[in-house]
Write a structure and sequence with these properties.
Blueprint (H helix, E strand, L loop, with lengths): L1 E10 L5 E6 L5 H7 L12 E2 L2 H11 L8 E10 L1
Antiparallel strand pairs: 1-2, 1-4, 3-4
Length: 80
């Protein structure tokens, strides 16, 4: 199974969907550690990004997240 990982962005003002940001390089172990998820969990759920996560995405992906204006969620879907 191939899994596509991405950030979903929503407005804090009205919760309107804004866009998706592809996560081309996804290190599962780092993400499990970041979100304090058990190593047995493949992270198929949706995870809200907090300030610690925003720093991670800035450092690893060069993505600036504006947590005051937007909600960000790490999500995934299966692609065949």
């Amino acid at each position: 199974m191939i899994v596509r990982r991405y950030l979903t962005v929503f407005s804090r003002k009205n919760e309107k969907y804004i866009k998706e940001i592809e996560l081309d390089f996804f290190n599962l172990k780092e993400m499990q550690n970041l979100f304090q998820i058990d190593q047995e969990n493949p992270m198929y759920d949706c995870y809200e990004v907090n300030e610690k996560g925003a720093a991670y995405f800035k450092d690893k992906y060069g993505i600036d997240l504006d947590l005051k204006k937007y909600f960000y969620y790490v999500e995934c879907e299966s692609i065949n």
